[in-house]
């Protein structure tokens, strides 16, 4: 399945890009599985998307979690938690 991935803040800075398009392996079906798969793509991906880092995830501009199901053609975003005051 084809997925567009958008990166924000420190993730974008670490990877040197704000967007990537990926053809996911058939067994990747959730945001959590995709995040783990992306960490195998390069050392930069492993550093930026390390599971120890607190990151928020969204699918088609809707907040998600590791169990959120992916759909062909969706847009996934990774960004740090946001706080405000």
Automatic annotation (TrEMBL):
The protein's name: Molybdopterin synthase sulfur carrier subunit
Gene Ontology molecular functions: nucleotide binding
Name of encoding gene: moaD_4
Keyword Nucleotide-binding part of the UniProt annotation: yes
GO biological process, one term: Mo-molybdopterin cofactor biosynthetic process
UniProt xrefs under InterPro entries: Beta-grasp_dom_sf, MOCS2A, Mopterin_synth/thiamin_S_b, ThiS/MoaD-like
Pfam families: ThiS
GO cellular component terms, semicolon-separated: molybdopterin adenylyltransferase complex
Keywords: Nucleotide-binding
